Give the backbone structure.
Amino acid sequence: MTCPLCHQPTTWEANPWRPFCSERCQITDLGTWAAEQYRIPGLTLTTEMVRPEQIDKEEEEKDEV
Ligand SMILES: [Zn+2]
């Protein structure tokens, strides 16, 4: 079989990093997965931070009028 990350020949049996060929490829794949997971919460936080500011502006305008 071949490593899904670097496509180099690797063995499945007695391989602690399977399906990857080495620890380096396994860590690289986990790092890519973690980076993709962090993108979604980051976008949600940005959207939630904008909402309170818009509500405050509307309330301030009402008080002035
Ligand atoms: Zn590899």
In short: The pocket of zinc ion is lined by residues 3, 5-6, 8, 20-22, 25 (CB under 6 Å).
